[in-house]
Amino acid sequence: MSKGEETKRAIVDQALELVSTVGLEKLTIGALANATGMSKSGLFAHFKSKEQLQLQVLEEARQRYIEVVVTPAFNKPRGEARLRALFELTLKDWEESLPGGCIFHAVAAELDDQPGPARDYLVAVLRDQRDMFARSAQMAIDTGEFRKDLDIDQFVFELSSITGAHPHFGRLLGDPNSEKHARKAFEALLERAH
Amino acid sequence: MSKGEETKRAIVDQALELVSTVGLEKLTIGALANATGMSKSGLFAHFKSKEQLQLQVLEEARQRYIEVVVTPAFNKPRGEARLRALFELTLKDWEESLPGGCIFHAVAAELDDQPGPARDYLVAVLRDQRDMFARSAQMAIDTGEFRKDLDIDQFVFELSSITGAHPHFGRLLGDPNSEKHARKAFEALLERAH
Q1: Considering the domain boundaries, does residue B18 fall inside one?
Q2: Does residue B69 contact residue B90 with C-beta atoms inside 8 Å?
Q3: Which of B119, B129, B173, B191 would you mutate first to test chain A, the one with the most A CBs within 10 A?
Q4: Which residue of A has its CA nearest to B153?
Q5: Which of A22, A33, A181, B9 could join A26 via S-S bond, C-beta 3.0 to 4.6 A?
Q6: Model confidence band, residue A193 (pLDDT cutoffs 50, 70, 90)
Q7: Residues 6+ apart with CB under 8 A from A172
């Protein structure tokens, strides 16, 4: 990486942490100048617009999700072991990897009624995630761990329901049993898939 | 209602619709002036601050949830029939009652890392909702429809997971089967509660 690229990466990292707590809307060049101690003009040299900055942050989040969740999970054998890893890493490691928790959760409700490139990018990332869960469930059918007539789309809906509910009950409502409930719901889901 | 109260109520209604699509952060006196065609100073006469306006909107949302979901559900007999009504009305009628869908969903991710009166109010509303689901599940145990050893907190976690996942899959990802998946997940949850 060149020095310029390194600086840019460091700025995007700070922007990502900021967005995980305050959302995309508050990610202005001014707020980022405060967080990084850089001048606004210095930041404008790296990011031409707020929109471009938002996209860079979402792209960085996608990279991190691959590092924190996808790569370690894909080191597990295909089938139920990999699905368990995807679930556990998304529930716990990914949620804890940023100060405000899952950034996709943080920006999803913000963007769902806001057409534009940021929404399009987010939807593409989340569809990729859904498809990855679906392929992993298909592999668990192929290994014989899951039953052949499993409704994969239904399985993925329920899996995502559980990981999505944890920030709601844990982070927002402060329920100390949220993680335990999420794991128990996942075990029940696996049981019905056998 | 006096004329002043009527005007205020009409303004809060418009603010609520605005918040359901753009979030609380963008609900400024200026944006509301644009949406209502009223002057900023006229609006300031009704709401002393942005914070007070936010609280009024959340209070109005709570009232509407009672009208759209709680009251019709409580006309059903206690037990499984009432739980079914609570689920269906939350999933469908409530989600469709505002242009941007469930307003609690819209502001939850926005407020979860933002301490203050708006977050406190939202958390109180959502805890009330959770407790209402829990009491309704307890009644279904009392009527003999649900098994006596049902883990009620676990049941409520899973019920809320399902209603929370629908805006994600339906509104954001554009999955036409989202509602069908939500209903199927709910039926499986009820089956395990019997």
Answers
A1: no
A2: yes
A3: B173
A4: A181
A5: A22
A6: very high
A7: B108, B111, B112, B122, B123, B126
**Tokens for B107?**
């502001």
Question: What digits encode the pLDDT tens for the residues B33-46?
Answer: 888 888 988 888 88
Contacts of B111 in chain A (CB under 8 A): 172
Does this model's pTM top 0.90? My answer is yes
- B21: which chain A residues are within 8 Å (Cβ-Cβ)? 113-114
Asked if residue B79 is part of any domain, the answer here is yes
Identify the CATH number of the domain in which residue A189 sits.
Answer: 1.10.357.10
Domain total in chain B: 1
